[in-house]
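Appendix B: complex inputs.
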Amino acid sequence: MIIALAGGVGGARLANGLARILPESELAVIVNTGDDFRHLGLHVSPDPDTVMYTLSGLNDTERGWGLAGETFACMEAVGRLGGESWFALGDRDLATHIERTRRLEAGETLSSITADFCARLGIRQLIVPMSDDPVQTRLRTPEGELAFQDYFVRRRCEPKVTGVEFAGATAASPSPILVSLMRSERLSGIVICPSNPFLSIEPILAVPGVRDWLSRRTVPCVAVSPLIGGKAVKGPAAKMMAELGLQTTPQAIATQYEGLIDGLVIDRADAAQAYPPCHVTDTLMRNVAGQEFLAHEVLRYLEQLRASPAS
Ligand code: FO1
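Resulting structure:
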């Protein structure tokens, strides 16, 4: 069994590649919930939904988030009434948030609701929110602290980031399926997807027990760099790294995951900065074929590390 840690669009794309080439019982995707927030009275869980929509083939491949063929009539109507329309909940996507909110308010956990939604959408792999407890990613900026979606969507990642916090993380517990996966004897490798290390992966590592589990792993763990040619494919990773005084290099990504990974997968565009243990390949996932290609590369690299741990 392979565990993938994911958040956002890059994470969902590699998770989909893995889902398409591994037997369905052999993949569990642990997903960031630090971006979750309450909006228009609804519990929105963007990263689990992005992974769920991608693995069910319902996703909008251009935008990366939300459903294909989506319409936004409800949001337009909310905007006409002077309501908050800066965060676009699509007409059909709204059903997910309405039903999730109802079930949360009835006392169900986020992880059991996600598992049920996945089953209903025909997904056989495990999609596991990192925690059932609230963890909120917050950005420190010169304008003060911003909630994640205020920074990411409302402010279009414009404010300079001076630090990141995960409010609630120390009091959170890993979700029950994550707990059992961390103890599983069936585990053969761990993949950190090409998600933003600071905003998508760090919140998962901040859940008590997760970082410790990774640092004491007995199976190989590889991360895929989200950088191509020193730039992020999507999102603010490179901008944030510069603002935090880091170089936008594979080395800086590896340093972020120090002690947690056995190797880093980097793109050919960054090959000049390759160093062992690194695997150089094409990491841009333009389409499903690209997702499957990268998934194969990652699995081969894990296999290689299992065979000769020092390579
Ligand atoms: N991203 C945007 O840039 N603008 C939006 O209006 C927006 C709405 C949205 C609705 C549901 C959902 O699941 C995701 C949505 N996203 C939107 C994406 C989301 O903000 C980010 O993908 C993640 O939080 C970062 O991984």
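The first strand starts at residue 2 and ends at 6.
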